[in-house]
Amino acid sequence: MKWGRDIVFLFKKLIIGYRQYFHNGYVNSDGRRLLEEILRMMMYEHPEFKRRIYKVRRCPSIENILKLGELVAGPVVYEWLNEVLNEPYYYRC
Known about the structure:
By secondary structure, the protein is mainly alpha-helical.
């Protein structure tokens, strides 16, 4: 299935920015704003995924978002998440 480049780039931004957009495994308000933009674009391009998009909107956990991301970008979304989780975290002073 062919997806728009902007959807894939926004998914990558959401997953790579895990520490910024997620808290306790769920999206925060900034992540929710980005996720809603992604889902709006997905509904416009492929309305046949309405049920899956509804599920992600209702429960925006990292597991549901990764399942949807795997549909869009393939299994590379798990590699993006592993890169973020395995890098050291630097605290701001």
